[in-house]
Amino acid sequence: MFARALITLVFLAPCLCKVYEDVVQLPGLSYDFVIVGGGTAGNVVANRLTENPNFSVLVLEAGVSNEGVLDSIVPFFVVNLLQPSIYEWNYTTVPQPGLNGRNVEIPRAHMLGGCSSHNGMIYTRGSADDYNRFAAITGDPGWSWDRLLPYFFKNEKWTPPVDHHDTRGQFDPAVHSNKGINSVSLSAFNWPIFANHVIESTKELPDEWPFNLDMNSGKPLGLGWLQSTIGDGMRSSSATSYLGPEFIHRKNLHVLLNAQVSKLVESSHVNGKLTFGGVQFAQGGTLFYSNGRKGDYSLRWSPLAGLGISSLLDIPSVGRNATDQPVFILGWTVNSTQTLDSLIQNTTLFNEAFAQWNRSHTGPFSAEGTTQLAFFRLDSQTLASNNFSDPSAGSDSPHIEVAFSPSNFGALPGSQAVSVGIIVLNPVSRGSVTINSSNPFDSPVIDVGFLTSDVDLFTGREAIAKVLKLFKAPTWQDYIIAPIGDLENSSDDELDEYIRNTTRSTNHLVGTAAMSAKDARYGVVDPDLQVKGASRLRIIDASVFPFIVSGHTQAATYVIAERGADLVKEAWK
Questions:
Q1: The CA-based dihedral angle spanning residues 460, 466, 471, 474, taken in that order and rounded to the nearest 10 degrees
Q2: Euclidean distance between CA atoms 95 and 210, whole angstroms
Q3: 552 is catalytic
Q4: Alpha-carbon distance 556 to 554, whole Å?
Q5: Which GO MF term does the entry hold, naming one (predicted)?
């Protein structure tokens, strides 16, 4: 965060009068806090800091506006956003040895709201164990589940689904809040034939696949109904919520688009710690400078050695610990036309569904397609007998997520199919994000290190076996025609090849600026999110996760930002 705070994030907000596209429109370039990146976390911090009318905040967003971007508004159109476009940074990894040398795409949003403007909108908090591990490794009880739960409530605005269906038995109201800012809801369109088979499986296989009323209670194990950041049939992002109309008109909050920060400037030392006076950013080929009077900044860092760049602060952990969750898909053809495939393949049905959404924001376009999620653990004795340590945060934490969808996403044109996405939640494999150029505008070098650890591949094989058994339950027998691919009769080596050849990113890359205990000799930020060895320079986003949470990372990022904003306020009260 610059000035009082410099922060890095990217998300889309309605472009009202305080969202500018040209630097000359700004009333000035001197602010208390400069936030680098109007993303999931950046917009949260901007909102919370400007609750104090005495704080002035500038958000510098490298991407474009989210306003009017239909693919970001209509939940069903999310897949369109994850293609090369102006709304994407269009990043790709280096060749991955664990994926037989394949490169994989790493979608990152190039628009206001950041990844909250183009992610899958799935809302999972992870387990209480995850955050208790954060607290243990940092020595700060403020990162524990019990201490963070109020921040989950502060973020979340529970919203009834737009179809107004009876939601009793689909979630637990006691673990949710309707007083927050960002909309969270149950799906308003659940493809009932498929969804009913999934729920029936929990009744036929209750020991292996128990029903979980609410996966966001801190104990996610089991199978339950999907919750998403959707409100009134539209995506709810940090841009549409934290920069919504009631906030963006604040006189002390300004957002500048198309402004990519290149470096921190005006370095000096105060009380033995490095500090900075502002940031340099580019717009339209011209460099500009903004100074932050309070000097709290949040930036991503990269190794500088060998590139002719002088190092002001030596933090070897910068860019290390890169963690992403690998995902691969299993599919089955079915004898029902009530699938996403029928909608995608039939222009008439597609247009009718779009017309319904335009009229009332209801129908299949009001949801992103997933109906339920399941979380489960591997047997501890199975792990031990194969010489693996438990990579999870605790006994209530899952190793695997299964996402159920009434589609195979066009894998078999002309057919009707359903699928599950299998996610390895606690990968032991690690990678890095580095640079190979002295030009700050060149793309980073991303290595997610997928499947370089044997336990990650083992976890994937075990997940396949468990999912195949699920689809043998009686409820599926008159619905499924055949599996897509004969994995049931495959050897371990063949399963390994399937996983390596089909795995892609869940788009959950975190951890490259990990927090650690204040006296730790590793890590990038202290528990208060200040960069080690620096003053008034904070990193407030998903890069500070020391471990990835056992679920999707969106909810956890919001909570990091909510508490991070409070830490900044406390420092400057």
A1: 180
A2: 39
A3: yes
A4: 5
A5: flavin adenine dinucleotide binding
Binding site residue list for FAD: 261
What's the gap between Cα 567 and its chain centre? 22
Angle at 534 between CA 533 and CA 535, to 5 degrees: 135
β-sheet bridge partners, residue 404? 372, 420
Q: Which residue has the higher pLDDT, 295 or 54?
A: 54
pTM of the model: 0.94
Q: Which two tokens stand for residue 534?
A: 């620096």
Task: Kindly provide the residue ranges of all beta strands, DSSP E only, lying in 41-148, ordered along the sequence.
Answer: 57-60, 91-92, 105-106
Please measure the distance between the N-terminal and C-terminal CA atoms of the chain and give it in whole angstroms. Answer: 16
Of 490, 530, 532, 525, the closest CA to residue 511 belongs to: 525
DSSP-assigned states of every residue in 471-529: TTSGGGTTTEEEESS--TT--HHHHHHHHHHH-EE-S--B-TT-B--TT-SS-SB-TTS
Known binding-site residue numbers: 261
In angstroms and rounded to an integer, the radius of gyration of the C-alpha atoms of the chain is 23
Residue 410: per-residue pLDDT: 61
Do residues 373 and 327 lie in contact, with contact meaning Cβ atoms separated by under 8 Å?
A: no
Give the integer Cα–Cα distance in Å for 76 and 86. 19
Determine the Cα–Cα distance for residues 292 and 280; give it in Å rounded to an integer.
11
Instruction: Please tell me which residue in 110, 118, 254, 552 is annotated as part of the active site.
Output: 552
Rounded CA-CA distance 258/241 in Å is 21
**CA–CA separation, 417 vs 415, rounded Å?**
6
| C-beta neighbour count of 311 within 10 angstroms | 9
CA distance 349 to 105: 31
Residue 328: phi, psi to the nearest 5? -140, 165
| pLDDT tens-digit map of 304-331 | 556 777 788 999 999 999 999 999 999 9
Amino acid residing at 183: S
DSSP strand pairing (2-3 vs 33-36): antiparallel
Cα distance between residue 552 and residue 559, in whole Å: 13
- Give the per-residue pLDDT at 573: 83
How does residue 83 score in pLDDT terms, banded at 50, 70 and 90? confident
For 263, other C-beta atoms within 10 Å of its C-beta total 14
CA nearest to 325, candidates 402, 379, 388? 402
Report pLDDT digits (tens) over 518-554.
999 999 999 999 999 999 899 999 999 999 999 999 9
- 3-state SS, 127-190, equals CHHHHHHHHHHHCCHHHCHHHHHHHHHHHEEECCCCCCCCCCCCCCHHHCCCCCCEEEEECCCC
In DSSP terms, 280 is beta-bridged to 263, 289
Q: What is the mean pLDDT of residues 482-491?
A: 94
* Structure tokens that stand for 89 in this block: 């940074």
- What crossing angle do the helices spanning 128-138 and 145-155 adopt, rounded to 10°? 120
Question: Is residue 524 a contact partner of residue 544, using CB atoms and an 8 Å limit?
Answer: yes
